[in-house]
Task: inverse folding
């Protein structure tokens, strides 16, 4: 069996990043088309900060929105996948280091993942 | 303004921002935020949220290409991501409590600094003597130059780590990649070759931005209607920028023009922030 090497990890990471960007951007574009079709005539204003529409602010809301072809819910799903792309990349590097038996860097990758998860969990605090 | 008109203007503006950001090496984020806040009167929180998303898209897209070429130092990137993600998390928390006018002033200052950095000539440096920590952390590496493999050592790991912490805070606070600060850490402090530092910095930007994006997402800073044209525009602009080959003499002139424009935008941000108009 061939040993896993750094160059293999590089190839895999490259693919993860590329696929993540292509898929999420396609979803954002499709959502954008629905949003345009349904709302292009309405007035838009972003001068005052009021948060985002309720239906894109929770996972069930986004899911329902996707099922009813609401453009902004589809866009938000694409954006969430885009945010997940570098995080999935860290996960893949961790698996790569694990297969290489590079314990130090398996630990470092795990630590970075832990920080991002902590950040996500404390997002509503403070 | 109707959704249709706003979307088209933002799309066109983001395309230009992505193009300029790519040609100058400043990144799309630092150009799109003044464009949205100053010209379109978009609230800076929405602008930062949208910019952050475009930063993830462009850095992931170009990192994919660089990683495959084998120039990126993945171990160095992973190690420094500890610092940038902690910083980004802190920066995003900070953004929730700092006045928007203060954020605008800090943004302007960082923008001027980034423009200044983009004018500095880059020279390839190879340092052989290695530090103890770089050895222990397996940070010393090699990269291909014209079919040859060049080895390099990494200096002052602790200093670089601290600088990255700061770069992370700025990235989380302002919604930009803070590539200029990352290059200061790697070129200036850790003394690694320019090509390696640029690609490795780019590799780290996506993860750093994701760490603060998870906070912004829950806080409702990332509006899909605005982010959609921004992310599509910036990504397409950056793609176009990477395809344009500028020869070095004209690129120097271009950098000067952009640096002056960016400094002007930065001045506007500071002025408006100072007078509490942002």
Result:
């Amino acid at each position: 069996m061939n040993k896993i090497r750094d160059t293999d990890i590089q190839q895999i990471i490259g693919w993860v990043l590329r696929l993540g960007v292509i898929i999420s951007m396609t979803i954002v574009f499709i959502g954008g088309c629905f949003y345009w079709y349904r709302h292009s005539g309405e007035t838009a204003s972003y001068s005052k900060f009021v948060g985002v529409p309720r239906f894109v602010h929770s996972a069930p809301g986004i899911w329902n929105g996707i099922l009813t072809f609401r453009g902004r819910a589809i866009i938000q799903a694409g954006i969430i996948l885009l945010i997940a792309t570098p995080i999935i990349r860290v996960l893949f590097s961790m698996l790569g280091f694990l297969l290489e038996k590079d314990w130090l860097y398996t630990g470092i990758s795990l630590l970075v993942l832990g920080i991002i998860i902590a950040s996500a969990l404390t997002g509503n605090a403070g | 303004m109707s959704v249709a008109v706003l979307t088209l203007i933002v799309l066109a503006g983001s395309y230009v921002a992505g193009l300029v950001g790519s040609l100058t090496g400043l990144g799309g984020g630092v150009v799109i935020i003044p464009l949205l806040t100053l010209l379109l009167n978009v609230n800076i929180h929405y602008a930062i949220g949208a910019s952050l998303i475009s930063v993830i898209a462009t850095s992931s897209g170009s990192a994919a290409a660089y990683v495959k070429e084998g120039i990126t130092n993945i171990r160095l990137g992973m190690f420094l991501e500890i610092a940038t993600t902690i910083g980004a998390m802190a920066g995003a928390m900070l953004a929730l409590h700092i006045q928007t006018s203060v954020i605008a002033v800090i943004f302007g200052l960082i923008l001027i600094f980034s423009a200044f950095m983009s004018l500095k000539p880059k020279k390839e440096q190879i340092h052989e003597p290695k530090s103890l920590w770089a050895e222990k952390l397996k940070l010393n590496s090699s990269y291909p130059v014209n079919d040859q493999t060049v080895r390099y050592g990494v200096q002052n790991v602790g200093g670089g780590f601290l600088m990255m912490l700061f770069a992370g805070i700025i990235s989380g606070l302002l919604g930009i990649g803070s590539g200029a600060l990352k290059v200061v850490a790697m070129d200036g402090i850790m003394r690694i070759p320019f090509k390696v530092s640029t690609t490795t910095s780019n590799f780290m930007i996506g993860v750093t931005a994701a760490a603060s994006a998870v906070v912004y997402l829950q806080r409702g800073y990332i509006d899909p209607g605005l982010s959609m044209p921004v992310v599509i525009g910036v990504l397409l602009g950056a793609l176009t920028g990477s395809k344009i080959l500028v020869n070095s003499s004209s690129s120097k002139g271009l950098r000067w023009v952009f640096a002056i424009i960016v400094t002007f935008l930065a001045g506007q941000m500071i002025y408006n922030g100072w007078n509490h108009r942002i």
